[in-house]
Amino acid sequence: MLPRPTRCFTPRLLASALVPSARMLSGMPPSTPLVPPDRQPLLNARRCVIKVGTAVVSNPDGTLALSRMGALVEQLVELVKQGRQVLLVSSGAVGLGRQRLGLAKDVVANTANVIDRQACAAAGQGILMSTYDMMLQRMGVTCAQVLITQGDFLSRERYTNLTETLDRLAALSVIPIINENDVVTGCHQLDVQQVFSDNDKLSALVAAGADADGLALLTDVEGVYTKPPHEEGAERIKVWTQNMQVEIGEKSTMGRGGMASKIGAASVAASGGVHTVVASGFDVANIERIFNGNDVGTLFTASDRPNKRKRWLTLATETKGSLWIKPDGISKMMLGRIIHGGDVASLEGTFAVKDVVSLRSEDGEELARGVVQADSSALNAML
User: What are the record keywords, sorted (predicted)?
Assistant: First the structure.
């Protein structure tokens, strides 16, 4: 069973102004009884994020899947014509670069070969972006490249700059083409917990941070199944619910995701207030079906959207340490009051001023996350 995203209270050190929930755009397709109620928010979605993986944009030999990419672009343009704001998270640079550089697939598929994968990303990102730009320009739509690193989420200032830039591009009817900047962060430390380790999680963080209303996570299968879809008895799960357990098959060889990654990312996006569907990208018409509210793929229904600061703390940060809070301190948190050094029973980790830490009860349960105003040495001296 996959872990659920951390829930937290909002003590004063976490408080901020509320962010508006999903907005409805006049002129969008009207409500229809043919749309299941739980899919209605997707029909009404104004800001839409679409994520496509390596298997969608490239062929098995590493070359561009031009017909599929062309159909994908037509789907994106159609959403724009409907008055929606569109953001695309696209994998594929490493696979395309591998083919251009003439490297063996099994060499690049080995995540330990960091430099080779970064070199492939450098060669492939230009191919990927120029293809999108050419196709979209011919259909009268402008796109913009946005390359993201782990640090863009870990830093509150950079996170705010990123989300505000995406807001502005969307307002200008420009489609951001988003990818991890693998040339400099290229697939390193994959076995160490990071804010994101693949574009599935990246798309979820982007969707939640950019106040998206809907996210389409396109993959190489028709949705989440009770077991690998090629096995007898596998059934598509129409609506995901908490505590579901499924059998996970093998992940992509050129990409870094897999079905476990899709489920985890979709759960993160949903907890950030984004209605999310995992569906097949081989039939790119699924994009239209998803945002028409049709019953395709697997739906992860959105929770109430937290305010933007709380989303950053719970979804887009990596804690540098933990503070175990005394019962009186927990009572202060519940009342939204400031926590002082005297409220801390013990601490773990080494952290600096303004680092994010986990606030825990004495039995170890994470209650909240916060930004500390004293480093670990100074706080230790208060205990």
Answer: Amino-acid biosynthesis, ATP-binding, Cytoplasm, Kinase, Nucleotide-binding, Proline biosynthesis, Transferase
